[in-house]
Automatic annotation (TrEMBL):
This is Xanthine dehydrogenase accessory protein XdhC. Residues 115-256 form the XdhC Rossmann domain. PANTHER family: ALDEHYDE OXIDOREDUCTASE MOLYBDENUM COFACTOR ASSEMBLY PROTEIN (PTHR30388), XANTHINE DEHYDROGENASE SUBUNIT A-RELATED (PTHR30388:SF6). Pfam families: XdhC_C (PF13478), XdhC_CoxI (PF02625). Gene3D superfamilies: NAD(P)-binding Rossmann-like Domain.
Amino acid sequence: MALELLRRWRAHGERAARIEVVSARGSTPREAGTFMLVTAQEQAGTIGGGRLEWDCLAEARAFLKAGGASVERDIPLGPAINQCCGGAVTVRIEAADLAVEEAAALRTREDLPQLLLFGAGHVGRALVRALSLLPLRLIWVDAREDAFGEAALVAEARVTADWESVLEAASPGAGVLVLTQSHTLDALIVAAALSRGDFRYVGMIGSRTKRQRFESGFRRIGITQERIDTLVCPIGDWGVRDKRPEVIAAFVAAEIAARFLARV
């Protein structure tokens, strides 16, 4: 849920309805517990799209105009609404308390998987924009205050050269993505991340030649080959040679989603 959007709604005194899938049976677009918030003009989140969501949005906006008690609807996802999922959902529509929703969204953001991104160059900025769409707590680190640009609005920007402290404070199971302006700094950060050994994902921008040179250095300082083998480099390696930052960012974001975020 977009925390900044909820804060704006509260500041402007907006009224909102909450649409929640309270049960899901069979094949459905989203699972029970999924919800979205709706105002007269905007929405946040999704219960799965299609005619199901379209009809629920219309009913939620009618609910906002008329007021009254919450309502529940049992909705088969079949020919009646021109969907062929085959399952069924029960959906509840009720008034939303935006203060409660904002507090819940803040807790959810704190609990999201951490991804530490080191480097605010042209690829770093494109990556932050792409990764901001994923369910991540994105911590972005660079010593250059003027390097972040507008992308800093969608991440936790840390203007610091003390990357060691940021890495040490990261939660076990976090991810690390390294693409600084310095190959020496890249090597130091990756070596520290691999040495720690409890990160779920460690990725570094670079060629296979860069990787080979770094691997030799890592072995010399005692990092085991087993840990070195966990390093993802090149990142976003889908066999496409397009080097535009936005294209690189798209492939790396897909890799993060598949390797770091996917539920199994």
